[in-house]
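Per reviewer request, we include the raw input and output of the structure prediction for the construct analysed in the revised manuscript.
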Amino acid sequence: MSNIEIELNPVDFITVGTIGPKGQRMFHLQAGKRGRIVSLIIEKEQAFALSEAINELINDIAERYPETAASVEDINSWDMDLREPIEPVFRVAQMGLGYDEDSNLVVLVAQELVVPSSDDSDLELETDEEEIE
């Protein structure tokens, strides 16, 4: 099992996009800082849940910390397309979203989905001589 830790603090951009035809799309969470691009594979449901969680968190931050709320530009003017190269580092198992009041930053943590390989599995069978015959 690999333990990959990537920190982009703060990011220059973050987006979710898809590659592939409808019904076979692969969803990507992508972020970057100073020319470094990190792409992760996420499920459609994770993309939807992340969108909902971000909206909820932003509303919560605006209510709890009105002095930190910044005006949001017209989102249609933002470049939200995936950027090349799109080379996923890993598939996401779960994500956590929070707010760091000291830095006034939203924090997103993504954990890798680890699928045990055949090398990682042990199988032990016990039997007696009567069962073999």
